[in-house]
Each structure stands twice: as structure tokens, then as C-alpha cells.
Amino acid sequence: MAKPPGIRAALLLALAMLPGCDRNLAPFDSAEEPRQPDLSRIFPAGAEDAPAAPEPSLELPPPPGMRGAPSLAAESGAPIRGTLRLAAELQGAQPSGAVLFLIARTAAAGPPLAVKKIEAPSFPLDFEIGPADRMLASMPFAGEVLLTARLDADGNATSRTPGDLQGIAAQAVSPGASGVEIVLDQKL
To answer: Which pTM value belongs to this model?
Structure first.
């Protein structure tokens, strides 16, 4: 259905009367100097002297079932200290430029609890691995921990290259243990 001519004319007149930017209506003046915009209509006087709002906290609240529970990171024990040695029969088998990965696990399988990367190691090597080396800060460094070490030729912790050297601690230890000895005695 067509609109009556009077309504069409009224709509066009209303559109023409809408306020708009008049900046492009004036001719270009090459001598005009740039100036800062007048912000007094947007920001009231004295707004710059008002105290700044505090920064919002980026820390997430605990999950619903954990409200009031202590942080898991607070349950972590002391670091484990010991010595890494290279087996006598593998003294000449150390790959040049190899990286040593010291890995702590809470079980024989599964993701590591903590990992320490040591570049250009020389043996014997005193080590310390603890809460600061955890893979996830929320996992407590507690309970029985199995320690393994791998001298990795390519420096990639996820790969196992033929010629890498590996060793496992004789038994699981608890956080705070010292005198732990790991001998790199296996050649992959």
C-alpha cells in the first residue's frame, strides 16, 4: 500500500531537520590550527581531582564446595634435596648440549607434580625440587613423591630420543627429604 504524499513529505522534512555534524559544511581552512576538544561537557569540573577507584581484584573466588577451606598451596611441604650422579659406565655417553629434567610424580603414572629444567648440567649435581617447581600451583607438594631424571639430547621434555640417559630414585620420598640420590644408569 502506498503512503499518502503528505506523510512522505513530512518524513523527508523530519529527516532533513535531524541534527548532524556540521564540521564538513565549512570550507577547508589550511591556516586552522588543531586544538584539543572541549571535554567540560562530558567530564564535570573537579573530576580529575577525585580519588581513583581501587583496581579490581583478578583473584577468583574459591569453588562453591571450597569456601572457607584452606588453600591447597598452603599444604605444600618443604623441597626435596639430593644428588644426581652419572653411572660410571655412561660417563662418556653424555650428549653434548643436553638438558636435564628432574621430575617429581605422586604416582607411577599421570602428570608430573613438579619439574625442574637444568641446562648444561655437570655431574655430580646437587639438586632441590619443591613447591616452587610445581606444574600447577593448586596441587599440594605433599605425600609420597617418585623422582626421575632424564638427560635429554634435544632439550624437549616430551620427547624420548635414543641416547637419552635416565635414572630413578631407589624409593619414593616425602617433601623435606634430603640426601636423595638418583643415578642416571639407563640409556634409552
So the answer is: 0.58
